[in-house]
Specification:
This protein has six helices and no strands. The chain is mainly α. It is elongated, with a radius of gyration of 28 Å. The termini are far apart.
């Protein structure tokens, strides 16, 4: 895959992508925020553990650029701040997948337009890691594999448990409300009967 400095824009946008989902879900969608945070904590924690057990490094970065422009200058600064060590699986890819999963789980972003926008942004961000020589295709593969396993645990299994608890609570509230209504009607009818009895005695 040929190096392309123009992909530095989606690469940098990924940080806004991650932060934006944190802010939105925290302020307006707490259930999604909880799943998003659990996914991030588990996936990042497991990735850091892999880095400790099996450190990795890639040597794909170009030694020099064919031409100098604003984009290559930004990439040079990016290379200086973000080393090419501990790259498999890619945290950049893992974080991007986490945002997409959170967006698809949110009722706000259930429309086709929103889902298309999130998926398009994710594809560009993930592609940027390869075109900028930050990661290889192998790093992306292991990130997807790791995210698939964690998705089944956090969004599917925990989501089902959460839905069951919610339905159970709704049934409990409905039962308590239905139980209170007949009782109140019985009390009113008893009071009316007592009142009629008093009027009859008079």
């Amino acid at each position: 895959i040929t190096f392309c400095e123009y992909f530095v824009f989606p690469y940098i946008f990924s940080f806004i992508f991650l932060a934006g989902m944190v802010v939105y879900s925290l302020l307006w969608d707490i259930p999604v925020f909880k799943k998003y945070m659990w996914f991030t904590i588990i996936s990042y924690g497991m990735t850091l553990l892999i880095y400790i057990i099996y450190p990795s490094q890639q040597l794909l970065r170009p030694v020099s650029f064919c031409h100098e422009n604003l984009f290559t200058q930004i990439v040079t600064r990016l290379y200086a701040s973000d080393t090419n060590t501990n790259v498999c699986p890619s945290l950049h890819v893992t974080g991007t997948i986490a945002v997409v999963l959170a967006a698809w789980d949110s009722k706000k972003f259930h429309t086709r337009g929103w889902r298309t926008a999130f998926c398009t942004a994710a594809v560009l961000i993930i592609a940027s890691t390869v075109f900028l020589k930050q990661h290889s295709a192998l790093d992306i593969f292991w990130s997807f594999l790791l995210c698939t396993v964690i998705y089944l645990v956090v969004f599917r299994l925990c989501g089902l448990c959460s839905d069951k608890r919610q339905k159970k609570n709704e049934k409990s509230r409905a039962a308590s409300q239905s139980g209170a209504t007949p009782g109140s009607e019985n009390e009113r009818s008893a009071q009316q009967n007592a009142q009629h009895a008093q009027e009859g005695s008079v």
